[in-house]
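ok here's ABC transporter ATP-binding protein, seq below lol
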Amino acid sequence: MSQTASTPTPEESLPQRSTTKGTRVEFRGVTKVFSNNKNAKTVALDDVTLTVEPGEVIGIIGYSGAGKSTLVRMINGLDSPTSGELLLDGTNIVGMPESQLRKLRSNIGMIFQQFNLFQSRTAAGNIEYPLQLAKMGKAARKARVKEMLDFVGLSDKGNNYPEQLSGGQKQRVGIARALSTNPTLLLADEATSALDPETTQEVLEVLRKVNRELGITIVVITHEMEVVRSIADKVAVMEQGKVVEYGSVYEVFSNPQTNVAQRFVATALRNTPDNVEAEDLLSHEGRLFTIDLTEDSGFFKASAIAAENGASINIVHGGVTTLQRHSFGKMTVRLGGNPQAVEEFYQSLQRTTTIKEITR
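and the structure came out like this:
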């Protein structure tokens, strides 16, 4: 069907953007206080200052009640701060009229934990829905839906209803729907927490593709550090409404500064023995040490010297990870034999890295 003069073209119907620039998101001293019927106050966000650069993927992580969901509702204008500013590409959206917020939301894609698909619509119909709201012409809609299905690897599932799709396929339909209107910002609110580990990785690979090929800024809200590890450039750790730690994924994973960040990192890396494992390891002879491994930790040199001096060295736990082109990890070793050589090993590594002895 040919387009008539009154039928909007894709260019007229959808916001156009560069494929190398996403939205810049900036929180400036944002606080949100809720009051209940008894006038009791709950601080959901407490003086949050945070910047997400265009094209970045940031993971916002925290336990239940940390303030993550409130933060994401601020970004798409569904909630407003009690105080502070929230800027999207330099424009403060706090106090913006609803008519302007609706226009702003057309540039923000959203994917959800429970997919939020229309059960009465096919996969193609779900993707087409926001294009209908944008008053795109029928031919252009069909072409865009096909493009999105191909992009998320579901070119053969367009006529399937949600009940005929797996969880991972449903989420990919959700991603395709969120991308259909050419947003420059994508919000993913616990988008993988309902999926098994293998399916989670499939969905995260699609999100990596979105960021890599389209340049969209992605804000990932999650309580799973493995998700942050897999996709994010930066990570903000939240606790009780505050951002308590922020940095590159490598910085936070390799050297977490707060207790909450250390707990999250431990769930993803599993490179130190837990209490049960440590108790078992301590039942054997020898001294146990957990050592931070970096490119200049000196572990292998110290081990070679200790072995030459009569120490026996056994690796009993550990792991090495590569993130953002840096390798790091932890190794737990048991040393026996010559006590002096063991002590010299310990003293030598204290000068070059972090080494802790595990004792009862």
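fwiw Residues 50 and 263 are 22 Å apart (CA to CA). kinda neat tbh
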